[in-house]
């Protein structure tokens, strides 16, 4: 009896100590949150090339597997050394495809951006003259408004003059420093992409070894039951991310090609640049088309307002085609979550991680949704409520 009481009190004491320790840890995290975030940012910055490598390897793995499969079909009786060489060839081809795509996108965007910026610089003075003449024409019969406009113009000119005359050297130095930071940022991204591609080659070459090691660790740490559950969830996560991201990339590539064909036929300025922007931003669910269409529309507005109007109509038609025909054919109902939760995931993870969060938010939320669904179903089965599961599935998830 005393032993039972001791065990009970010991359990209560351990529980209380655990709760107290958790409270202290939470308080420490809250008070030291800026320091923790700063440390995490520093670690993330150091590991960026590895993160790039993991992303590249994950995206290239299906292509690499497909190439390996085709080559093994050509050489079915290949020995170990030949099989290793085939794996090496598959990795090289996959990396060449990735480099070619990245290079093509860069070469399509940079010259078009430069040309557009130069055109805007040349166009702005002319447009300002046109706007000024239009305002003067409108104010010819409005002396009070004309006087107010002239006063406003002279005040604006004096403000601009004062800005240019006061601390001009400091302002120029500030602009140069800002440009230097931006340049180093771009060089940092290029460096991370290069190192990421290099790391992805090693990851692709050792992917089967890493998979086997992960399996050993999983079964060594957890029981067979939990190891099986975790393996199933990992497979589901891979299915969600792979199916969604690869499908979205294919879908966006098709949209980009259709956009290029349409803008070229209609004679818009910089069709390649517009199509690349529309294609890349289309990867972002829901908000992507708007994010891409706004800068492209403004660019066309400066060149020709009617082209901007035609472009908006064209993008609307293209997105309807994507949403009702192309997207469902390629993606289907990949994630299995409703439109409401898709919007929720984009806003939540987009707010947390920016553009990256908007891209990965939907498949990540689909995984979280699946885990919660399985836990709820497990609880219902534990309480002998299988009929509720059957009714719910019949009513809301009947295919």
TrEMBL record:
<protein>
    <submittedName>
        <fullName>AI-2E family transporter</fullName>
    </submittedName>
</protein>
<keyword id="KW-0812">Transmembrane</keyword>
<dbReference type="Pfam" id="PF01594">
    <property type="entry name" value="AI-2E_transport"/>
</dbReference>
<keyword id="KW-1133">Transmembrane helix</keyword>
<dbReference type="InterPro" id="IPR002549">
    <property type="entry name" value="AI-2E-like"/>
</dbReference>
<feature type="transmembrane region" description="Helical">
    <location>
        <begin position="245"/>
        <end position="266"/>
    </location>
</feature>
<feature type="transmembrane region" description="Helical">
    <location>
        <begin position="46"/>
        <end position="64"/>
    </location>
</feature>
<keyword id="KW-0472">Membrane</keyword>
<feature type="transmembrane region" description="Helical">
    <location>
        <begin position="183"/>
        <end position="204"/>
    </location>
</feature>
<feature type="transmembrane region" description="Helical">
    <location>
        <begin position="272"/>
        <end position="301"/>
    </location>
</feature>
<keyword id="KW-1003">Cell membrane</keyword>
<feature type="transmembrane region" description="Helical">
    <location>
        <begin position="85"/>
        <end position="110"/>
    </location>
</feature>
<feature type="transmembrane region" description="Helical">
    <location>
        <begin position="308"/>
        <end position="327"/>
    </location>
</feature>
<comment type="similarity">
    <text>Belongs to the autoinducer-2 exporter (AI-2E) (TC 2.A.86) family.</text>
</comment>
<feature type="transmembrane region" description="Helical">
    <location>
        <begin position="12"/>
        <end position="40"/>
    </location>
</feature>
<dbReference type="GO" id="GO:0005886">
    <property type="term" value="C:plasma membrane"/>
</dbReference>
<keyword id="KW-0813">Transport</keyword>
<feature type="transmembrane region" description="Helical">
    <location>
        <begin position="339"/>
        <end position="372"/>
    </location>
</feature>
<dbReference type="GO" id="GO:0055085">
    <property type="term" value="P:transmembrane transport"/>
</dbReference>
